[in-house]
Amino acid sequence: MVFDIQRRQLLRYLNTTYTYWNTPLLHAIIAFIELAIMSRIAAKFHGYYAEHPILTMMASNAVLSGIADTVAQSITAIRERALRKPGGPNVKDDPYAVEIHELDKRNPFSVEDLIPESKILPPPFDFERLSRFVGYGCMIAPVQFKWFQFLSRTFPMTKGGALGPALKRVAFDQLIFAPIGLCLFFTAMTVAEGGRKKQVVHKLQDMFVPTLKANYVLWPAVQILNFRVIPIHFQLPFVSTIGIAWTAYLSLTNSAEDVKEAKSSGTPQRDKKVLIRVDFNVPLDSNKNVTNTQRIAGAIPTIKYALDNGAKTVVLMSHLGRPDGKVNDKFSLKPVVPELEKLLGRSVTFAPDCVGPKVEEIVNNAKDGEVVLLENLRFHAEEEGSSKDADGKKVKASPESVTKFREDLTKLADVFINDAFGTAHRAHSSMVGVNTPQKASGFLMKKELEYFAKAVESPERPFLAILGGAKVSDKIQLIDNLLGKVDSLIICGGMSFTFKKTLEGVKIGNSLFDEAGSKIVGDLVEKAKKNNVKLVLPIDYITGDKFAPDAKTGTATDESGIPDGWLGLDCGEKSIELINQTINEAKTILWNGPPGVFEFEAFANGTKKILDCAVAAAQGGKTVIIGGGDTATVAAKYGVEDKLSHVSTGGGASLELLEGKELPGVSALSSK
């Protein structure tokens, strides 16, 4: 790690100190080496080509691709130097400045006017990026060479004239190979950068059409000359040479798309201490081993981005469990460190507390690029605003101590990033009390807000919501809000029995019944009719004689009713068919709450089959959002998180967001 930091410091020093014609010396040296290699290949091209035609093409294309990327990185570096000059561009005029991050002005949970003063700047010289371009140039060369040979054979030049065959070659090349080539390029680059299917699709959606249009401005004219005049063995080198400018453009385009994602979240300035509120409230077994790393993995992109963009120190803070404002080793965050190091690929320093002189010393003396994880925030009553005494009574923290705690957290950072969506609905000190000049959302927070904003305000229709849970009264506001937005609403799980008994007089035995909720069921149904919302309820059930994994099981229908002493614990096959049919009709599906007691195997069938249908919908291009809580646990249990559009990390936060409430942790980011 020390070597890595020293290497980055040396490269940054070379990049900013020594220049050649306003180009960083390091870039100039690399370009000189590449040109020297290309000159050697050009000088003996005929000999190399005669013996090894494909290898010669691969080598020359690889070097020319490397030159193109070096040109692109040099352009970016020159821009960076201009921005660093005294009296340089104002932040508002700066092409790298973070734009306003605004999800939806109409909603109270929108993040508005978030314009950190930070600039997103590239690293001194990205050797990994260079190697990706060299590798791609090498691998694509045989394909391009064979393609040119195919065009030559298919449309041979005739004595009557070369223009006709040349135009046919150009037409075939531009209509077939150009779009396929761009798809291959963006896919290969994204995969090489560690992206997956979703990232590939996102990049193609954003970049394919504008890049293809730019392609048609340059390449038809170049290819006419190439196919009409240049011999076959020189066609690829000719295209690659002319294409240095084009490949540089592709390099800048590909890089700009990667940076754009980070820009919208307001990333930290270089050489700053960055404090990130993460949600590491992870489950631990009896040996204090982390049993599910999903929440840790969710924070990695934001942490890595801060490090990759020159943050001096990244300080992470989180809560774990409910220690009630007192130090309790059972809830220490120390067991998180090994898992975090594994996922992050670097060592992490653990601080024994989250505030105080000792913690400030650790943070202030940290080496460049060091990651520090603070101890559990909830070991201090000032985090939640209260603690519990020996008798379990709540003891409120004094306003003075809360203020001091928030000030001590603020001392640890120059920039604050909130990436803990799971606690965004809590007005806790770490969520709303860090008062740095720059505040922004992390990638995970941004992703959560964008998915829910899209689902609630501009969904692709038909829009379906699936709601489970025990009590209607607990979800009155959620149901009421969704009835003004969805096309279909499925009510399942325990609270469906309150609807069935109240509306249809179905016999429900000892199943859950919400007396308070039953009084407003009629009003909710009337609103559904008024808004033309299709309301779907279960029609048959899997029953148990007790609420236990070893319960005897039975079946029941609306007509038969559930016998006294028995409980409805899952939906039956006809209900599954009805629910899945409704899912198949929808294009946007929002799911919060399982339809059965999935924790007990005997009553997990309905949940599993409905989940399978939701996964198939997502894989078919539909948007499927899992609203955190138990439904997220279901997705994790069956290992399908990556097969759904989005699995929220926040149960309570997602519910309040869907109810139309303001999230304190998000609102706090609006303050500049």
How would the blueprint of this fold be written?
Blueprint: H1 2-17, E1 19-20, E2 23-24, H2 25-43, H3 45-51, H4 53-84, H5 127-154, H6 163-192, H7 197-229, H8 232-242, H9 244-263, E3 273-277, H10 294-308, E4 313-317, H11 336-344, E5 348-350, H12 357-364, E6 370-373, H13 381-384, E7 386-388, E8 394-396, H14 399-410, E9 415-418, H15 429-432, E10 438-441, H16 443-457, E11 463-467, H17 476-482, E12 488-491, H18 496-504, H19 515-530, E13 534-536, E14 540-544, E15 553-557, E16 567-571, H20 573-585, E17 588-592, H21 605-619, E18 623-626, H22 629-637, E19 646-647, H23 651-658, H24 664-667
Parallel strand pairs: 3-4, 3-9, 4-6, 5-6, 9-10, 11-12, 11-17, 12-13, 17-18, 18-19
Antiparallel strand pairs: 1-2, 7-8, 14-15, 14-16
User: How many domains comprise the coordinates?
Assistant: 3
- Spans of at least 5 consecutive residues whose pLDDT stays below 50 are 1-9, 83-123, 262-269
Q: Strand percentage, roughly?
A: 5-15%
- Alpha-beta content class: alpha/beta
Q: Distance N terminus to C terminus?
A: 35 Å
Largest sheet properties: 6 strands, parallel
Sheet with most strands: strand arrangement? 5-6-4-3-9-10
Number of helices: 24
What does the radius of gyration come to?
30 Å
Helical coverage, percent range: 40-55%
Beta strand count: 19
Instruction: Give the overall form.
Output: globular
